[in-house]
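Record type: monomer structure entry
Structure origin: computed from sequence
Chain ID: A
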Amino acid sequence: MQGRFGSRDDQNKNPQRVVVSVGKPQGGSGDDREIIQDARDEAHRIVKAAEDEARKVREQSIDIEKRIVQKEEELDSKQTQTSKLQSQLESAIEAYKKQEEAPNQVRQDLIKKLEKVSSLTREEGKKLILENLESELKDEIAKRIRSAEEEIRQTAKDKGRDILVNSMIAGATDWVAEYTVSTIRLESEELKGRIIGKEGRNIRSFELATGVDVELDGDIPEEVRLSSFDPVRREIARVALEWLVKDARIQPTRIEQLVEEAKELVAKDMSEAGKKAAHELGLYNIPQEALDRLGRLKFRYSYGQNQLIASIETGKIAKKIAEEVGADPLLCAWGGLYHDIGKTEMEKEGTHVQLGIELAERWKFPVEVRDAIAQHHEDEPFSRIESIVVHLADAISGARPGARHEAVEDYIKRLTDIENVALSFEGVEKAFAIQAGREVRVIVEPKVIDDAGIVILARDIKEKLEKELTYPGQITVTVIREVRAIDIAK
């Protein structure tokens, strides 16, 4: 219904209510009419404002609806484009797969044609190509081997020289190695009769008490020689006999008394020697029994080399090398000092390595030290860097000039073995071990081995020497190939 103040719907849209107080009916005073007119104007203004606001809201709603419809249309368009792109991508992938299969098929067809034409299978052809390639690159391989070896040799030589010199300086000892013969000089040959005694009772008592053999019939009349496989027994006998000769009271009772005193003196000497050796290397937590046993090496020799001196030297060198390469210096020194401790076991069977391991286990040495003892001759694979260091230190100590004396038979056999290793290779005509086995010169047949082949041959001989032989120091392998052209002018 349309009234004077608008329709009912317009009034519902505008919740604002207009209350007009009407006084008297028309025809009243002029003030009443003005009030009514003002109220009508105000109501009209309010209604108009409400209608304007409603119109704006409707326009905004229409605008938002248009934008939503536009966004939906854009989204549909993009979705359509995405579908087309996906379809194109799938088509491209399929085309790529077909193109990828085509060269493989062509390659297979060509391989079959080549096999048919050459009458060779694929594997046979590959082997033939590799052989030809290897033959063509033989010179290049030899050059690269030579270049790499030269570079490694120079670098190792410089670094090795520094390490070895420093290690050998650190391993220098003040003692001089002696020979293994125990002899006593007598003031006169008459003393031999007193040593023998009536019906030989004195010499029998002495041999029984000491466990050594006394030789009086030597080349020198005023000399007595004592022989025994046990160096400690031999030392006890030497000390006791020197006391007896000075005492001049040579009889069985006196012999037994002095031998016991000599045993105490030698035992004390060995204990002091072991303690001094350990302290010289900075080792202070070793059981006393192990120190006493270490001192026994003072009276033992190998190749003319005193074993205690060699052990101290090995420990010093190992300690210095360990400092250079980052290993544990104290464990290396410990392993170097005790690496030959098994040589003190004179009564048991087995190698000195096996006996040394048993002793180390009995004394509860650290596992690193036990491994160094077990592996210093490569009887077992190296398990840690400390074992390698002790092995190297032992080799350096034994191979340095003047360290050892070797029997002639052993020397000849070692040189022969070196030459036989070189002669075992095809194409080798002659081999000569020179410089006390430090170098082997190999002469090859020029028709069998070319210039590139001598580099590979030298490497093969070196590897076989390292694998099959044991030797001090190192061996230089020199391969010589000579080609001569001879003609005679008449």
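Annotation 1: The chain has four domains: 1-134, 179-257, 281-405, 411-480.
Annotation 2: The first helix runs from residue 8 to 13.
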